[in-house]
Structure formats: C-alpha cells, structure tokens
Specification:
Transmembrane protein; transmembrane; transmembrane helix; membrane; globular; 0% strand
Length: 206
C-alpha cells in the first residue's frame, strides 16, 4: 500500500497541478481548437516554469542547507519553497498573457498564487496538505470554468474526485498528514480556485 501511496503522491505532486490544469483546459474547453503545435509549446512553457524550475530550486535548497527533505515534511522549512513556487506561478501567468490565453486561465493562476500564499501563512502555525491544495484547486478550477461556460464535464468531475480521495488516503497511509490537514488542504484549494475562476467573469465588464 505504501508503494502505491508514494506513486500517487508523485503523480499528483503539487508542482504538476498547473500543467495538468492547462492540459485539461486544452482538452475540454473551446481551447481544443488551438493547433497541436501551439498547445505543446504552451504546455512545455507551463511545465518548465511551474514544475522543472521550482523543482530544481527546491532540490538545491534541500541539498545546500534548507534543513528539510524533498517532500518538505517539516512545515517550518516550507516558506522559501512556497515563495519560489508562487513566483513561478506568477511568471507563468504573464507568459500565458503574452501567449494571448483567455483571462479566466490567467485568473486561475493568480488565484493559485494567492492560495499558496495563504497556505504558507497557515504553515507557520499548522501543517496543511499541499498535495490536497493542488488537486482541490484543480477541481475548483474545473467547476468554476464549467459554470462560466455552462459546461458539464461530469467525467472530469468523477475522475477528479476519485483521484482526490485516493490521494488523500495515500497521504494518511504515509502519515504525512492528519485527516483534518487533508480536508483543510482540499477545501482551501477548491474554494480558492473556484472563486478566482468566477472572479474572472468581472473582467468582461472592464
């Protein structure tokens, strides 16, 4: 069970959630009409900025005296890695703006940065699950965009909630978090990104 739990924790790592979200947008919204070459270019840029670059910096921080491990098990050493991740998300948001992506997608990224800053603040006093923030945010974004454009991606919802349940269980099996930390992480991610996606609606009136 622990092997499977570790695999799920890697597959649904927080650093990968932005890439998954953009890929899902390309697959299930009107962005599907974009040429494949453009989709791959944008996805490559998103993956580089929000997964590869922060992942390398976090690995270097751990190696050269951050005092933690790659899983950032100790909440007291999460501040700088979180800030690095937030910076990478903001950079990615501006990249998407330059690539003329719709504002709702950019708004979700800014919402993700805000949620991670809130999680960083919470971690000063209490450990919250970054994995569950990530997958909760992914589902919140799907629900927000579905509401904006009157979509019904029920298959994505079913798969997403099943994945969230499996991931939450894996974090408990590995004893990385308590049930409260798992639920709180999912709730923060889901609500934060859902609201940010809906707030993008006001952009159309500006």
């Amino acid at each position: 069970m622990k092997v499977l739990a570790n695999i799920l924790s890697v597959v649904f790592h927080p650093l990968l959630m932005v890439t998954y979200g953009v890929a899902l947008a390309f697959a299930s919204t009107y962005l599907a009409v974009y040429p494949l070459q453009m989709k791959l270019l944008i996805l490559s840029g998103v993956f580089l900025m929000t997964a590869v670059v922060p992942g390398i910096f976090i690995a270097l921080l751990v190696k050269y005296g951050n005092g933690g491990d790659l899983a950032l098990t100790n909440r007291r050493v999460r501040t700088l890695p979180y800030l690095l991740f937030v910076a990478s998300i903001v950079a990615c948001a501006f990249f998407l703006l330059r690539m003329l992506m719709p504002f709702w997608l950019v708004a979700i990224l800014f919402g993700t940065a805000a949620v991670m800053l809130m999680a960083m603040g919470i971690n000063f006093v209490w450990k919250i699950s970054a994995h569950m923030i990530g997958i909760g945010g992914l589902l919140g974004g799907v629900m927000g965009v579905a509401q904006l454009y009157a979509l019904n991606p029920w298959i994505s919802f079913i798969i997403g909630f099943l994945a969230a349940g499996c991931l939450g269980t894996s974090r408990l099996i590995l004893k990385r978090h308590t049930p409260a930390q798992v639920y709180a992480g999912f709730g923060l991610g889901f609500i934060g990104i859902y609201i940010s996606s809906l707030l993008s609606y006001f952009y159309f009136f500006i």
